[in-house]
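For consistency, the fold was encoded as tokens, which produced the following:
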Amino acid sequence: MGFTAQLLDDIRAQLAPDQASLDEARARREAVRAAALSFNGGRRTFASGSLAHGTANCPVHLRDKGLDADCGVVLDRRVYPWLGPDSASGEGPNEIVEEVRFHIQNEVGRTYPKVEVTTTKRAILLEFHEPLSSGQDPTVDLVLGLDRLGAQGVWIPNTETNEWNASDPEGHTKLLTGEPKSLRVTRARTIRLAKAENKRVPDPLLCSFNIEALALMFVAPRSGVPLALVQLWRDGAVDLRARLTPDPAGVSAPIKCSDRHAAADRFDTAASRLEAALAHDENESWVRQQLAALWPEFVAGDRSEVTKARALAALKGAAPLSVTTGGVLSASTGLELKNPRSFGTSR
């Protein structure tokens, strides 16, 4: 394994949520799903979003911000025949969203007495105010859905306009978690790295779901993570210059982007950096220089240094610094890089 792949693995290690927060986020999500299903007319619930897709990031130095878990509840339209734009009455979502919010507050509050339940544009947000020892306090977003009559997907609320919009969160999860496993794993790792690069600026040009949609289109089978990233960025740049990214489920409108041409330029720049690293994969200093431009918080100048993310985590008490057996200054979650061997040489 060359230095590029090793450093990308180490970046992912710094991005990965810790197991305790994953377990707690899932437990809270399941508690919300159970409460939602007990609402009158609850038909089914589902998990969605990055946690369900296997693409969640929770950087080691930002663990105190916690994870967010997404889920949804679909109501039985036989119980609520007046709801939805394809019903006779065409009633909007705001009243039923408030009823579900009140129900969720009462039900979830039995287990989490400090929970605060509010309504956002698309969902019901639960903030639990019960942080873990690490400081993480996972939140949950619950979206309300109605099966569309004679069409794929569900209607979800827009509470700002009191209207329903078509979406297919269940379909998105099926696409991103489908077989084969090798492609699913490579794609998820690629997405997590691309999401981190996208968020290295204060105002990212793309939403995370846009990156997931492009990865579904362009990450090919039997490609390792470095080449999959190049594919995503190069082919994604071409596609963004031509159009807004379509919904991978074919239900919603194309995904909004503040400036798709600037996003395409950013993709091309990132691809060029990664290609430059791969062209001299045996030169650790060169590879670090190229990758540090894309993930500055997660790549140190050389192996004797600690990344900015790990240093900040150590200051917060989340990842104490140490010295490895090889004399390398590192953090407890760090990976010590190995010198890559040329093909055909003995181990």
